[in-house]
User: Fold these one by one.
Assistant:
Number 1:
Amino acid sequence: MQSCKLGEDKLIKVFSANVIPAIIAMVINGAQPIIDGLFLGKFAGLNAMASVNIVGPFMQIIFAISFIVCTGAISLIGRSLGSGSDDKARSVFRTSCVFITAISLLVTIFGGIFSVNIAKLLKATDILVADSAMYIFVISFFAPIICNMYLTGFTTRVIGKPNQYLYGAVASLISNVLLDYLFIGVANLGVMGAALATGISYFIALCVCSIPLLRKSNAINFFKGKINFKLMPPVIANGSSEAVVCGSTAISVFLFNSALLNIAGEAGVAAFTIINYIATFGTLAMFGISDGINAIISYNYGANKMKRVRNTYLSALILNIVIGLTVFLIVYFAGDKLITMFSKDPVGDAAVIEMAYHGAKIYAIAFFMIGFNIVGSGFFTAIGGALSSVLIAASRGLVWIIVGVKTFPLFMGIDGVWWTFPFAEVCTIVLTAILFAVFLIKLKKEKTSQKSALTQNKE
């Protein structure tokens, strides 16, 4: 497998080698619950699909643990390798493996014991609570596997093997589709089968992603490095924006489900679930770009190659804008056909399908702005600007979501829920622009100081 030198190879080669596999892998891995939903909707009905959406906040806890450690670790590993501190980079990885396993085991214990309580806490109705609790119970046992899959997959990028994570994602996708068909379509295991299929597919991906890290010749591997928990605070701090993203997603899904249950009952939650599934493909592609540039930006920032950092960011931004426009056009003109795919009875579910299509067209407006905010947050994470990244993530995923979902439905009914998404992105663009202006001013001052210092030394 061909390696990619983050700081030396032509930028177009580095960008395409890292970003394209990252987009595909992120879409595939993030689509696992959507695949479950598609099979459940077709074979078990919309209520079974809605029950999986109800437990979305619990899944976000697992993803939050994964991305806090993974994103923070890769940023620090990349900057360490870029500056020549290879031993530190290895220790960061090894310590992160131990830490992420320990924390995810706590999720396994908690989810296994309190699955019913968690489902009720997440507002699962009497109709949905049994299936929601079953999904939580089963998927909890796979939490350490899911977390370590993301850590190993992300790490292969920073050692110049970005395709490995893609291979793991493809293996995961194929296995999840086959297992969903066997467990849900053939064995009729319903939600339990969906959770088992997802968990096993993540295990297969973990095995694939771990292969390069079993080789001692690679810069980062399972065998070299010291376990030093003093390295974890900067890792967690820098990955905290990912925690905000996942935590915000969990809270926003909870708020939307609660609002929709009050306005439209289980049908409203089913409609939101379908909209969320369709929108997820677009946002996952954008997050894939953000993740793909992390290793490039962090390495070159550590090596003080700022031109490569700037060009990488601009390329990512342009690509996200193209994806956003594409998603909007697809949803607006073909959304009804996509939504119908999730129903086993399109005639009987006609009201839900119409509700989802109407909401999706409003939601899709947000895609004109999402890319700018996602790449902005990812950029600040890569360079170690944890606070700026957190502010962007909290703004788009929590602050303005709460304002919108608590206010707009009072005046616009269910449309107020859908308009919350574009509103949050518009407000966040303003914040992101301000933070970039501050960063550029600070960078200019640092360059001026460095030139001044060099002049004085020559004199």
Number 2:
Amino acid sequence: MKQQKPKRRRKRFLNLWGMSLISISLILVMLGMLSLLLIHARHLSEYVREKIGFTLVLQDNLKTIEIVRLQKVLNATDYVKSTQYIDKTTAAKALTEELGEDFTGFLGYNPLFASLDVKLYAPYTANDSLKILEQQFLKYPQVTEVYYQKNLVTLINKNAKKISLLLLVLSALLIFIFFGLINNTIRVLIHSKRFIINTMQMVGAEKGFIRKPFLKSSIILGTIGALIANGILFAGIYTYKKELSGLISLNDIHIPLLVSGIVLGLGILLSFLSTWSALNKFLRLKFDELFY
């Protein structure tokens, strides 16, 4: 009987440890999915904002060398992502397709000018930056007019800020909830060892000495849970990569590494903090209070 009780207690503890590991792993999977959402939401916002650009109307009868020189100057700047030259003929064809009829035949000539479509990097697409860049582009002698959709730019920037704020609030709330779930999971695990903690206190063990093995176990638990979570997360992404190809960039190796690091860091940190918090509670309890 005496040998069966320790075995039963050990089996019960291992079951608790296994359930805690499964719970932490599943929570970390959700945290990993949240991280992917946040990272790709920022990338999506940048992608949309980088579609914002200027149309630089060029002087008529410019030489090819002057146009090429202007493109090289613009491409060399920190704020221009790309430039595309559109000649008069191409512009006329595009407008004809849009209108559904050949306006050049009606007018007898092509009234359009050659232009450059200039796309900017996301940090330079704020309203104030665009106004400054508009004046900067007008200083080039090859440019006669500058156009960009001001109302669309304002709408995109406003919506991007609202969505970013909403995602931050949602993320903070979910992290708080996930921390609470991990905290409760580890509290149950430490609760099964409360009498051992009390016995160690009775024989004069210091709090630091008592905490050390539990904190070490929490780091191991968080690490294993994070590794399992990363395995589940990326196995799921690989399985459904075709369905997720439009939402998640699978070609950029930095994103999987970043998400793996976030999951590992949160797994260790949340397990450590939860264990520290639970231990402090049980270290303050008296012997009579251990039975409640």
Number 3:
Amino acid sequence: TTPANYFHLLRWQALSGRHKPLIVFTPKSILRAKAATSATAEFTSGAFQPMIGEPAGFDASAVRRVVLCSGKFYYDLAEYRAKANAYSTAIVRVEQLYPIPHEQLRAELSRYPADVELVWAQEEPENQGAWPRMALRLPQLIGRLPRLVSLPASSAPAFGSAKVHAATHREIIETAIPAES
């Protein structure tokens, strides 16, 4: 979800000597997202991060919900969280869907209280996107199944109406990150 992470992924693939294809799903819209930027230093140092959690200064002790997501949906969730001032919700980006970075994910989840609510949020219908794989693997890898926040299962990837899409997209975001009371 960041230009630097994408750069490090491509660099790793080129230098690894692996002869397996690298499959990257990323929408063109993320190229225009003002929030999807990286500092020059992030390109010149570091490595690919298969999972990106909250920054070190984030108050993990106040978190009541952790939202797991992937891709550009992170930016929609983060924008809404900032507007709603809902910092009792942490957002964790799963950048690598296969294999699932379970050690990094366990380490990130250990930062938060044990009774934290765990949610997988995606803008795709529940039978599409990353959820079917996550629903099968996460219980074994982290010991519990997150609650799903997504569109209901559908044979079509979209409604075909920009108005309906905008309304359902907003509803998914507001369900994933409830406003602070």
